[in-house]
Amino acid sequence: MAEQAQNFAEQLRARFSDATVIEARGETTLEVPPTQWHAVATALRDDFGFEQLSDLCGVDYLSYGRDEWDTDDVSSQGFSRGVEGKAQGRFAWGETLTAEQGDDGIQPVDVPGQRYAVVAHLISYQHNHRLRIRCYAPNDDVPVVASVTDIWPGANWFEREAFDLYGVVFEGHPDLRRILTDYGFVGHPFRKDFPLIGNVEVHYDEEKRRVVYAPVTSVEPRVGVPRVIRDDNRYGTAAGEQREGVKK
């Protein structure tokens, strides 16, 4: 099976020289330039037998590889509420650290060159292969990627979902409009800088006798800091001493 997977990866490298093949945890990912997204998808269907698209989604890489919770130390109670650095919603994409940069208490991380990406999962039943393909939208302000609905019609609703939740525009989609959020919804709720309380709230206005949209005033913005349980060898030591005491 491992040899078969290796041969498949080599076939992808030979066929798509401008793409990058990533093998990790027994899975294969083909990272495609945005200008070749549609052409590569067509070739995967026609030349490699990937007749089914099982999933397509958007990804927001804001805060990728960063953790603001204290995960190293423990208190005498065995849990910590320490917050270090800043995670999603607390900084802009342009402030994301690179491998050459650092900040107080924040470990440098490798971040993608672009913020938004589209990921699709493909299945080839005739060859018993699964493949993940990914491309990064070249423009973070208005992320645009070619639609693959003409290749796999089942991508229609998946692309509408990614447009609704992440704001990714799929060029060539036959009916690109929101699919999950309400009429008049402002913003894209799966973007990591989208406020947890939302941008607007809905209520019934007695004077106007209709439902109206207004800025959120009934909920205070907040960020929860959960208790994070830590492993502490003192608990094991205490349990061992207690067992020894019972035996004596």
Count of runs of 4 or more consecutive helical residues: 4
Structural class: alpha+beta
| Contiguous runs where pLDDT drops below 50 for at least 5 residues | 98-108
Estimate percent helicity: 10-25%
Number of strands: 11
Can you give a write-up of this model?
It is built from four helices and eleven strands. By secondary structure, it is an alpha+beta fold. It folds into two domains: 1-60 and 114-182, Beta Polymerase, domain 2 (2-Layer Sandwich), CATH 3.30.460; 62-111 and 195-248, no CATH class. Strand 5 and strand 6 form a beta hairpin. The chain is flat. It starts with a helix and ends with a helix. The relative contact order is 0.15.
Compile the SSE list and pairings.
Layout: H1 2-15, E1 20-24, E2 27-31, H2 37-46, E3 52-60, E4 79-80, E5 116-124, E6 129-136, E7 144-146, H3 155-166, E8 169-171, E9 200-205, E10 210-215, E11 228-229, H4 233-247
Parallel strand pairs: 2-6, 7-8
Antiparallel strand pairs: 1-2, 3-5, 4-11, 5-6, 9-10
